[in-house]
Amino acid sequence: MVSLGGLIPPVGLEIPCSSYAVNVPLQINVLGIVTLDLKGGIRFRVESNIAGGLGGVKLKIIGEEYSADSPVLGKVTLAQADIDTTPLSLLEVTSNFPPAFRNTLFHDFTLTLEKPPGGGEPMVLSNTRTMTTLCDSLKLFPPQGDVYQLQQPVDFAPVGSPDMVVAQLLQLPMTRSHNP
Q1: Residue 54 in contact with residue 95, Cβ under 8 Å?
Q2: Per-position DSSP letters for 115-179, written without gaps between them
Q3: Which residues lie below 8 Å from residue 71, measured CB to CB, with a gap of 6+?
Q4: How far apart are the first and last CA of the chain?
Q5: Is the N or C terminus of the chain more exposed, i.e. has fewer CB atoms within 10 Å?
Q6: Which pTM does this prediction carry?
């Protein structure tokens, strides 16, 4: 693996980042689109090196949660699901000079709506397939104000009922910065 003068984090290192995304469109079947301003953070642990290509590392997401206050839905929380089957995320070197990186993140979430449409107890949904976000223009890692984009809309359904999709996250332009 190319170390790029220490620009690749070592195996075992934990890296916290704060994150925010504004005007995130969430399609709720019975309501239409609700926009959210999500704030929170993510924590990575470097698991192993990538030997192929120009090198890089595999990252495990060991904590992730974002929340927003919605006048319609109350507190909306997007939190890492307790799923050990989520693939490891990738930090790949795409250029040595100047240094450039691609960071592909794989997420499994629960989405909690404090005030679901129609009332009742808070509604907990889960994504029906693993979600991918990407930043392919990193000049350094950990990120500093870099934007990660959702690669395709993500469906959410009640936990245990993946065929009953009730919400879809349409975009997630997440700005992420290292927060030591």
Answers
A1: yes
A2: S-TT-SSPEEEEESS-EEEEEEEESSSS-EEEEEEESS-EEEEETT-TT---EEE----EEEEE-
A3: none
A4: 25
A5: C
A6: 0.93
149: left (phi over 0), alpha (psi -120 to 50) or beta: beta
Structure tokens at 180: 């030591």
Strand partners, 124: 112
Count, residues in the chain: 180
Contacts of 64 (CB under 8 A, 6+ apart): 40, 41, 42, 43, 79, 80, 107, 109
- Mean pLDDT taken over the chain: 93
Cα 39–145–14 angle (5° rounding)? 75
Q: What is the pLDDT of residue 1?
A: 36
For the segment 74-131, what is each residue's pLDDT rounded down to a tens digit?
999 999 997 788 999 999 999 988 999 999 999 999 999 999 988 999 999 999 999 9
Q: Read off the tokens for 127.
A: 């994504």
Whole-angstrom distance, CA of residue 135 vs CA of residue 17? 14
Look-up of token digits 């397939």: 129
Give which of 13, 23, 1, 12 is closest to 174, Cα–Cα: 23
